[in-house]
Amino acid sequence: MTSTLLERLAEPEARDPLALASELDLRTQAFVNGEFVDALSGETFSCISPSSGQVIAEVASCDTADVDRAVSHARAAFESGVWSRMAPKARKKVLLRFAELIAENADELALLETLDMGKPIRDAQRVDLPLSAECMQYYGEAIDKVYDEIAPTPESSVVMIVKEPLGVVAAVVPWNFPTLMATWKLGPALATGNSVILKPAEQSPLTAIRLGELGAEAGLPPGVLQVLPGFGETAGQALGRHPDVDMVAFTGSTEVGKLFLRYSGESNMKRLALECGGKSPLLVFPDCDLDAAATAAAWGVFYNQGEVCNAASRLLVHADVKDELLEKIVGVASRIRPGDPLDPTTRMGAIVDETQLRRVLAYIEAGKEEGATLHAGGSRVLEETGGYFVEPTIFDAVSNDMTIAREEIFGPVLSTISFTDEEEAIAIANDTVYGLAAGVWTNDVNRAHRAARAIRAGVVWVNTFDMGDISSPFGGFKQSGFGRDKSLHAMEKFTDRKAVWIQLR
Length: 505
Prior knowledge:
Blueprint: H1 3-7, H2 17-23, E1 30-32, E2 35-37, E3 44-48, E4 55-60, H3 64-80, H4 88-104, H5 106-117, H6 121-142, E5 149-150, E6 157-165, E7 168-172, H7 178-191, E8 195-199, H8 206-218, E9 225-227, H9 232-241, E10 247-251, H10 254-266, E11 271-275, E12 281-284, H11 290-302, E13 314-318, H12 322-333, H13 354-369, E14 373-376, E15 380-381, E16 389-390, E17 393-396, H14 403-406, E18 413-419, H15 422-430, E19 434-435, E20 437-441, H16 445-454, E21 459-462, E22 477-478, E23 481-482, H17 489-492, E24 495-503
Parallel strand pairs: 7-8, 7-10, 8-9, 10-11, 12-13, 12-20, 13-18, 17-18, 20-21
Antiparallel strand pairs: 1-2, 3-4, 5-6, 6-24, 11-23, 14-17, 15-16, 19-22
Helix pairs in contact: 3-9, 4-6, 4-8, 5-6, 6-7, 11-12
């Protein structure tokens, strides 16, 4: 695929999902032991474009038998040492080439991602794919810069504390950021020497399958990176229960995260790293820049159609400035309108599938039925396209015990809750089973410190929201899970520490 194809998207007639899919050499099989293969059952499932409701591909539907086959190859590769015991500089070279290939094929991957899950092509190009390449490069560079330790024992002994790869890792990733979430797992897992089986969400398998191919092209030996498209209740569960999978690294809902906890306990007590749901509060105090806060609040919940685990879905705002702030947010939201994801000017795309569309609309109805005031939006739009679009939706007069304030919606829905003082704001912010992220807007540095320390969340942004860097860890408290993605800390969860005691004579 060339950039010429993307340049054509400026013309409306060039944005037909079926036509674009036919021009791409779509990989739709599983990638097992270095080869593309059908599911052993021969079954497939439909890959549907959210922007049109059209089927763009039939993808291999892997199940338990396919998991058994992939795990066997992953274990064999790991035990052979072809990757796990490869010299760090050699592994580094492969991962850096992997990063280069992601960057070189970024336009194709961006188009696949937009066709597959409905995000705006401009976001896929400008955000997701550059960050994915950066992530793989970061962990490639880290391979030969992380040291083991020597314990401070008497001179009669030498105790080496070494970090060893766990073995076979299953990476189960969501559909909202398919490529980026995959690289958050693949980068540190591969860098530390593990064999990885990537299970993409059934709504967004295409980029994951392509990543498997690019990894092999970069030099990953057969069996070290395999990709199994399929459903969570079949392929996902089989990975979670498999006695020869050493770890599951999962990003997705808290409900499914709890299933993996059960699968681990009922099988081999495999390690888990769970980045699960969120209901992130954004606290706005009267002493801040309301224009900046309004922009952050709008983009914090409407970016990526609200399909973001740390979306700022609860707006906690001081009663004195609530009305003023809401009107400013409505003004920003008026410029974030749903449109064709393949249009380079679109800033808000389609909901991933019909099931999620109905879920979002049901939450909007629940908000109205429970007494919240629908301040803006609230409807499905562009229905004539056959796609799944919801306009930015803002509720006012929400209480923290309402369904829309308690449960993760994963759509463009903002719940506004007012408070009168700092103590009340902190109490509301922490009154949730989740603890993934939060934001605080204030010009009082003392208040900023107090609030950031008092809020129970893995990330707290002050006078900004949803900012990140590959060097900064990301993960949650409470039922938002445990373990961290990004940064050098992410490498820790894919290794075990071994003490090697050498007694000297």
